[in-house]
Amino acid sequence: MHDPGYHESVSANDGDDGIGSQVAEYLAHLTVERNLSPRTLDAYARDLQRFAAWLAEREVGLRDVQRATIRTYIGRRRDEGLSARSAARLLSALRGFFLYLVREEILDHDPTADLRSPALWRTVPHVLSEEEVEALLAAPDTSRPIGLRDRAMLETLYATGLRVSELVGLEVSQVRLDPGFVRTFGKGRKERIVPLGSSAVSWLGRYLAEARPHLDRDRRPELFLNARGGRLSRQGFYKILRGHGLQADIRTQLSPHVLRHSFATHLLEHGADLRAVQMMLGHSSLTTTEIYTHVARERLRRLYDEKHPRA
Question: Whose CA, among 60, 90, 110, 246, lies 20 to 30 Å from 72?
Fold first, then answer.
């Protein structure tokens, strides 16, 4: 879907409630009554016109918009890659629009009245769904040594939530497949032990036995090597990850940090203790880790709003 320009009409999408004409009247109101800059006015116009088109596609009338509708729409836009700043602006535009409609007695309720800007919009990047993670992990061609290496790297990253610098810096001596953990050094060279799940242990075992001997020409200490047998760089891993993301049809911008956030969020969604997640991530403060509780709650709230018949 494209973003309509400021002057583009949405009257064709009005429906019974005339949302297109109401958007136009509200924008005219802002032009006359509010001292907004042309840039802000243009941004509000795009936001509201896109929202109007989204409602029209789903045959949702203006009077049928509820809190769940707003949450679902903003959540979808965030999933598509909308930035934190743009998400906050979008909510501001919707709040102003619905407040105007209530004041003008066009609507008798404001669906944005009890919505607050979640802190996660400002601080947390995109989190993959568990289905997207499964597709990403399955993307490498494991019949080739490089593909087997890539599968082992992705499994390790998702199993441990390591930072990319920690992942490419891992040495063979820091990995224990039995009982299954890695010993890594984070910020300030602070050591921590992170468990490995059975899937990561299995793929690392295969990589060490079947693929790494083909890559290790100089008896290097690093666990993951590039195609020439040297140390894999952070930039090299970024390219590998994004290539497999395209294969897995993951549409959002993919980075190692997204997998780290997905690791933490999925753990909490399945009942993990917050302090245990803090230790695994290597956060010095529990406050830093607590943001993932907001992510998990927001994801569950969105799922509830989308699926529960009386949300």
Answer: 246
